[in-house]
Amino acid sequence: MTGADTVELMQRAIFVAIVVSAPMILVATGVGIIVAMFQTLTQIQEMTLTFVPKIVVVMLMLLFSASFIGATLNDFAEHCYALVERAPQ
Predict the structure, then answer these.
(1) Is the dihedral of CA 53, 55, 43, 41 positive or negative?
(2) Domain ranges of the chain
(3) DSSP for 58-87?
């Protein structure tokens, strides 16, 4: 594996990490904004109110996007194995 292959592999690994985590991060951010607006409008300052909805929604999003995450990680693993196979001995 050459230096260019290593750089390409690291770039792809970072991109895969971003793509795999994006659904949960975006949903948690959206729910956090909605809960913050609700707390501001109602003046409820309960700390657990911010965490429970986020945890529930992130777990549901993880459940719904599990096949996408698995397919993305599988493609990345196949790409890594292909790089190892074509590496000079």
Answers:
(1) negative
(2) 3-85
(3) HHHHHHHTHHHHHHHHHHHHHHHHHHHHTS
Non-local CB neighbours of 57 within 8 Å, separated by 6+ positions: 27, 28, 31
Residues 6+ apart with CB under 8 A from 23: 61, 65, 68
Cβ atoms 32, 50 nearer than 8 A: yes
Q: How many angstroms separate the Cα of 48 from the Cα of each of 7, 27, 35, 56?
A: 43, 18, 11, 12
Walk along the chain (89 residues) and give the pLDDT tens digit of each residue. Answer: 778 888 999 999 999 999 999 999 999 999 999 998 998 898 888 878 888 999 999 999 999 999 999 999 999 999 999 888 876 76
What does pTM read for this prediction? 0.79
